[in-house]
Amino acid sequence: MLLISGSTWKRRRNMKLQFRKREKPDVLPATIGFTSRTLVIYFLIGIGLIGIGTYLYSTFLMERIRKETETISRIFASYVSGPGASEEELLALLFREVIEKIDFPVVLTDVNGTPYSAKNVSDTNLTDVVKKLDREHPPIPILVRTGSDSTIVGYVHYGLSPFTKSLKILPFLMTAFLLAFLFLGFWGYLIYRKSEEEKIWYSLAKETAHQLATPLSSLSGWLETLRRSVAEEIYEGIAEDAQRMKEVLEKFSRIGMPPRLIEKDPMPVIQKAVNYIKRRAHNQIQFIENYQPLPLARFDDILLDWAVENLLKNGLDAIGSKPGTISIKTQGSENGVIIEISDTGPGIKQARDIFKPGYTTKKYGWGLGLVLTKRIIEEYHRGKLTLKKTGPGGTTFQIYIPAGVEK
User: Fold this and answer.
1) Least confident of 81-85, 146-150, 244-248
2) What kind and span of H or E run contains 325?
3) Looking at residues 178-194, what average pLDDT do you find?
4) pLDDT at 27
5) What strands lie across the sheet with 115-119, from one edge to the other?
6) d(CA 158, CA 134)
7) Mean pLDDT of all residues in the chain?
8) What's the rounded Cα separation, in Å, for the pair 380 and 390?
9) Which whole-number Å values give the CA distances from 37 to 13, 43, 97, 274, 307, in the listed order?
């Protein structure tokens, strides 16, 4: 039977409480917030606006057509009203009800094409106006009939009124509006889907961290109890793995939280991740490290360590149990830090899918490692994760972190 002293039990209890205190309130990532309710409201408002606009414009058109029909009917009624309507009265009515009320440009020319009268024309150069109007519509001849003969005495040159022009572009405006409405709706749907996926991964990570916190705190307490009962080498190995588990717990608990960016040298973090993987790789794996001095960069220790470790693990998984090489190269520039991690594995067959959630070549993999790595580098550090090359000779990933990142 193993007895636990009061002080050891107290340490275990304090460690458990410490893990619980470190848990932060749930804060969803910035992309989350575009909910299904927002999409429904967007489409309802959009459909409502389209319906109201269509109704109002249709009502306006019907009223315009009604007035024009009324004018024509009045002229026709005067024409058939009998001998009481003289020719002069008909001309006066036509002038008052039609000619005076037109809103489209009209230019009258003589038989030689010389302008002598115009209406709704702002340009003083009537000759140019006539040419422009003739490109839109052929001129209408003015005929004077004498018995069975008719003589052309001039021409009427006309264009479209602003109202008629608006009718011509109306189909294009409606099409553009509907396309924009559908595009925004589809864009919102994509954001909603992405936010739901983010929420699933975030919730899964938080729940995993929560479930690991209690047994890990107990394990640390038991480890302190066994310290004098086992060999120092065994104790150090278990303690190192326990510490690594704490770091894994911290990584999962940080998903969805703002990064803690601190400006410093990233080399110690890179070497720490490499050394950890080296100790757990089989003896047929050779590590080639080519480190060059790096400039200061703003990064999160835990998240950057996670990203480098993920790429190193992918390299080991690609090589498998065969002999192989993992190469780590760092170089700096005025703009930032570059980290390249290469392996001599068989390469990636479907390279275009490697950053999609769920894609994996491992039998029991979840397909989240590269997705999380890309998010850590690009969203949290404003950097870039790229697949530099892949093929039968191996695969190389490149991490770029800018030298200056705003908080």
Assistant:
1) 81-85
2) strand 324-332
3) 78
4) 40
5) 115-119, 106-110, 149-158, 140-146
6) 8
7) 76
8) 26
9) 44, 10, 55, 46, 35
Q: Which amino acid is present at 322?
A: K
Residues 252 and 205: beta-carbon distance below 8 Å = yes
Contact of 107 with 154, CB cutoff 8 Å:
no
Residue that the structure tokens 């037109």 belong to: 102
Q: Which residues contact 144 (CB under 8 A, 6 or more apart)?
A: 150, 151, 153
Instruction: Categorize the per-residue pLDDT at 16 as very low, low, confident or very high, splitting at 50, 70 and 90.
Output: very low
Smallest CA-to-CA distance from 150 within 97, 124, 111, 123 is with 111
Quick one: tokens of 61? 């058109």
Overall residue count recorded for the chain in this entry: 407
Domain ranges in the chain? 105-159, 258-402
Residue 329 has pLDDT above 90, yes or no: yes
What is the share, in percent, of the chain residues with pLDDT greater than 70? 73
pTM above 0.70, yes or no: no
Q: How far apart are CA 165 and CA 159, in angstroms?
A: 10
Distance of alpha carbon 46 from alpha carbon 213, whole angstroms:
48
Confidence of residue 29 (pLDDT cuts 50, 70, 90): very low
Using alpha carbons only, how large is the chain's radius of gyration in Å? 40
Q: Which residues contact 298 (CB under 8 A, 6 or more apart)?
A: 261, 262, 263, 381, 404, 405
Instruction: Let me know if domain 258-402 sits in CATH 3.40.50.300.
Output: no
370's tokens: 């590269």
Distance between CA atoms of 202 and 253, rounded to whole angstroms? 9
